[in-house]
Amino acid sequence: xxxxFEVPKEVLDVVTTLQNKGFEAYLVGGCTRDLFLxxxxxxxxxxxxxxxxxxxxxxxxxxxENEYGTVGVVNDDATDETLKVVEVTPYRIEEKxxxxxxxxxxxxxxxxxxxxxxxxxxxxxxxxxxxNHTIFDFFRGEQDLQDRVIRAVGKPEERFDEDALRMxxxxxxxxxxxxxxxxxTGDAIRKLSATIEMIAKERVQDEFSHLLMSSSPMHGIKLLxxxxxxxxxxxxxxEGIGVEQNGDHIYDVWEHxxxxxxxxxxxxxxxxxxxxxxxxxxxxxxxxxxxxxxKDWTFYGHxxxxxxxxxxxxxxxxxxxEITETVAKLVRWHLxxxxxxxxxxxxxxxxxxxxxxxxxxxxMKVRACDRIGMGRPKEKPYRxxxxxxxxxxxxxxxxxxxxxxxxxxxxxxxxxxxxxxxxGWILHALLEExxxxxxxxxxxxxxxxxxxxxxxxxEALQKLGEAGKEKRLEEEEKEISEIRKRHGVK
Length: 490
Ligand code: ATP
Ligand code: MG
Fold this sequence. Notes:
single chain; alpha+beta; Beta Polymerase, domain 2; five-stranded mixed β-sheet; two-stranded antiparallel sheet; 24 helices; 13 strands; 53% helix; globular; binds adenosine-5'-triphosphate; binds magnesium ion
């Protein structure tokens, strides 16, 4: 079969070098799959019948990638990160897996088919020769790409029994590609889902993060659930299934959390925002209470409990302390907006202090996910824009004499002035100048001006000082009104 794909020169060079020495060499795995799908591959893998030593002998700059004979061929001139290292792996046969994680031994083979049949899914098991434009597709991967299904190579149960992580990979790939999981492959996952517990949490976490960072995390999490995997990863989310909410909500808690995380993907927001969106209402099921007075459900404390619960999930999945803390904070404070009357600048300042100035804009993103996850219109309502404007007002650097490249202490030392109101007047007179022309804010110039000002009598100096204070206030007002204008609020 023939197929012609555009392949970067760096990659072509590696394949050509191997082939010119009489070896076979093919592109394989994710890169071939992505070429077929018309996507840009994120790394390039070559498979060959050359041994690791033979591979190393052919290239100037190489290193051993892992214990399975993969050699990284380095191209120091490549400007594109994805082309810096081309991974070259000898055809490999994997011996039996007794621990559901790693092969007991690997051996090298001279047959391409051996290498392809050890691979996880048919769509990842197509070999492409970029020099002769031929493909080798023993497991009908191209057909599965067309049908948009993830199908295990060989007998699904055996393959998941060898390596339980493949179950996570199946779902993660389905989420990334927007594919479904073929029936027998899916049945095998459902049957063996409990064995995911044999896999190191860090590896499960890694696949889970890839799933969340895909363009369809909602689809991915639903697949995890349908295949019985979610209960070993985040069973807390499943507690939300069928949990009806109060009047504002049209979705149950489960669907709402999923729609929230889906919005974070549509906006291409980072992992910690996606995790916080996914878990923001995780404590709603356990805090739900019926209120006879309101004739509706209430969820008091679901923010506080949710922060703790999200932290628990993250720790169980062995996420780093840093991202765990951030996600826990975002969940803990996601309710800030519930009371409109409390939108005062001091309330906003308190929130910024609580969630941390470095997280406050991410909190607004989580808030957007929450809102869109309820089925609300995409455009921001007035009070949300108002809130954002106030965050900016609360976090901006104030206009003060602190901005000057000189302080009262230095002025006293250099002019012989004593502590007292004259120092304040001098500083404010200097501030006025700097506000007129920021280029004047150099220590040298300010010092010279301070010396001149210090020669003035009290009355004249006070006048200049007051004018400076006036100017400062004007400047503050101008900045605030610019912020409000930018947010389209009064
Ligand atoms: P990505 O686009 O995320 O890199 P990928 O399919 O290239 O996706 P990798 O983890 O880079 O994923 O793996 C490269 C190839 O190695 C896969 O396409 C597959 O053929 C094979 N592979 C990876 N992990 C496994 C596994 N656990 N079992 C069998 N084959 C695997
Ligand atoms: Mg890859």
